[in-house]
Each structure stands twice: as structure tokens, then as C-alpha cells.
Amino acid sequence: MVFEDELISYITFRQNSTDDLLKNIKDLKYMEEYYKIKKYLDDFLENDDSVKRFVVMPGLRGVGKTTILLQLYDYLLNEKNINSKNILYLSMDDIVNYFNTNLLRTVDKFLSSVHKTDKIALKKKIFLFVDESHFDKKWAISGKIIYDNTKNIFLICTGSSAIDLEVNADVARRSFNESIYPSNFKDYLLLKHDITTNNSFSEILENIIYLGEEKYINQGISLEEKIRDHVYSLDNYPNEEFMDFLKNYGFPFSSKLSEEDAYKITFSLITKVIEKDIPSIKAISTAKHPHIWRILIYLALARPGATSNHKIANYLSISSKTVNEILDLLEKTQIIFNVKPYGGAGKLAKKPWNYYFLSSSLKSAINLKLGRYNINNKKCLGILAENYVAASLFKMQQKRFNLMGLFYPPEKGGCDFLLRTKLDDMVPVEVGIGRKTKSQLTRAINKYDSEYGVLISNRYSSIQQHNNIIHIPLLSFGFL
Can you give the pTM of this predicted structure? Predict the structure, then answer.
């Protein structure tokens, strides 16, 4: 068949264009997730039967998933001396659009044409790196079948955050999820300035916030002092460096760019998500595309605070149903996420939700594109700081503390966030730039009978605890 011949030609082309692929990652730094997955590859090569051979890597466009894949490809090829014919990198965007086929058929064709075998009879170790897997609606079941049919294939599938929704219980038992998120300040220092800091500081900060125990506070203070020595070696003042990161450098691709180029390419990323990723999740009429932009702009220009879908619909003169549909799609791509009001089902139904961007750079890019505010204004920086804290707490919940609840208090004059621990304790969190008072936090501690609260601000230059309030400098929180 002509179709099969073309698919085989594409597979051959992919395997013969390795140098072109790998030259794009030359001299790029390794993200933390690279080392985690590299360990699974090593275990697979050493015939460790307990290793997860099926890795799912979801994340927003631009967070570095493709870079990690290609770095792993390079590792196998040039450090482990794996034959290039045993490694296949695919983009399901190409496979679906050019050949109208799926992952399973492509893998079967690869094994039969290149290796003259099939999944069950396969005797050699094969590595499949599948990018943009969300373009194939059957990628998850394909992965399950590949996993069940052979122990000799190591499969990594990347895609938009929506691929998490396609992982059923059967697939989840067989796969290992390694979600990738936008850069934190630690990533930025590594990518832009080649400054390596202690990875355990992030985990200790999470423990301070979630557990509030003195031993973690002391560990945090000790590590913070060592990290400060590194940060103060910068030519720029550390706090100014952090503000630059907050505004423009939330993604790996932007770290070496000028501020103007960084926000332009970040804005371009948003455009690609709307034009490519959203249609791959759900067919949506082209007439609704302007509504997607209008809702994003509305959220980007809005001050922090709950926004009802009905209010958005009225402001933009569109139906609430359309607003709900678009917000759901934007959340599935993880451009935005929601923070719900604390309380029972009645509160959730009646009270509006807060919406934040997964990176403060996304919010900043839209505002800069529209010329709507002075990004260096203290009030604007405070808004970006609150967005950054919200996104970091969301990541903390998704990656480590799955039982943690992330809410906002529904009462007027409340703190910014409420964290519910697995023991149903409440941890109030307040964010601010400038002389942030503790009054809102103190009221929240009393109202929710909390043992402690957390104030994240630039009021102090080091982690401290005063009575029942833990102070974390915004700069230090950036390592979360």
C-alpha cells in the first residue's frame, strides 16, 4: 500500500535525522525530571523487572518536555551506545495529520519493517519516545497494549496536561506519571546563570508550609543561608533578578532571551495552545476562537479575586455555557487552573471560583502585549507574586501532596489561600509585596483554629517564625 510505504519512509527519515534533532539541544541544561527518567532507563537496561517501562509526561506546551525526550535520546545514543535503529522518536501530530493512523499501528509497522518482528516475538530492547501524544485519541490504550505484549519496549509519551484525563485505572497501574511544570526560580538560575542550588530546599519549603514543624523550619533556614551565597554572586540584585524571572522567564525557552523577546515568545506559546492543543482535545467551532482570547484577556487583566462564570458571560456578551466550555478547555491545557471557595457543596455551587495562570509569565505576557499596565509597578508585581504563589501551591498539590486541599476563604477580608492537610487542619496563607500586615492572616488563624499561618512576602530577608506565623521571603519561596 502507498500509505504503508509512506509511513515506513517517515519512520526511516526520523531515524536518519538524529543529528538534526539533537543539535537543537546542544549545551542545554538538564532539568530535574531528566535525571528521574534517566534512572528508569538505566534500570530497564539493567533488566530490572520492577521498573516502570511506560512513562507519561504531561505538561503545558513550552515547559521542556521535548527537550527532555531529546536529551534522553542523546544519552542512549552517545553514552549508552544504543544502536540508533533501536530508538524511535515520533510526533503524533505528524502521524495523525499526515498518515491518519495511531501509535499502535505505527509501532507495529516500525517493528515489522525495521526489525522484522512483532511485539510478542521482540528479543531486543527498543526505546519509543512519543511526543504530542494527545493528538492520538487512542494513545493510552496503545500504550497499555504495548506494555502488556512485551517487556522489551520502554515507552515515553508526552502531551498536553489533558492526557492525564485519558489515563484510566488500567493504564495508571502500568505507567509512571512525571508531570512537567513551568520553571521556578531554581530552574531559572540554572538555565540563565548556570547556578546550581540544593534540590532538597524545594522539598523542605513544602514541608514547612504543609507541616509547619520546627525541624523543617530550621533545615530551611540553614539551606537558605547557603543558597543566598550563590544568589548574591549575581551581578544583578537578587530581588531584582527574581522580579525579572516573575515577569518574563517562567519557561525554559525564554531564559536566554531579552525581556521583550521573552514575553513575545511566551505570547506566541499561548497562541499555539489555542490554535493547536485545544482543537486536539475537543472540536470547537472557529467562531468560538475569539471568545477564547476574550476570556483569557479578561482573566489576565482582572485583579486577584473570585470571578463568576455568569459575570464573565455578561461582560463579554456570550452565553454562560460557552464560558464554562472554554474555561474547562483552558484548564485541561493548564494555561489556567482554578481555586475553589472553602466550604460545603453549597459554597461551591454559589460562590465564584478564582482563576490563576500556571505561570505568572503567561499573565504578564498578555498584559504586556495589550500595554495595559506598568509591569514594574509595585501593585502589578504584587498581583504577579500572588499568581506565582498560587501556581506553586497548585504544583505542590499535584506532584506531592495529593490529599492537600487548595482553597480561598469565602468571607470578605480573608487571607489569600487556605490549605487543608490530610488531617483536616487548615493552614492560612497570605502573599504580599511591600509592608504586608499580618491582620488578615491572624484573623484566618483564629477563624479556622489553625496552629500556624504562612506569610510569603518581601518583608523579611530570611525564613523566620514569630509566634504562630511563619515568614517566608518571596525570593526563597521562588525555589518551591
Answer: 0.92
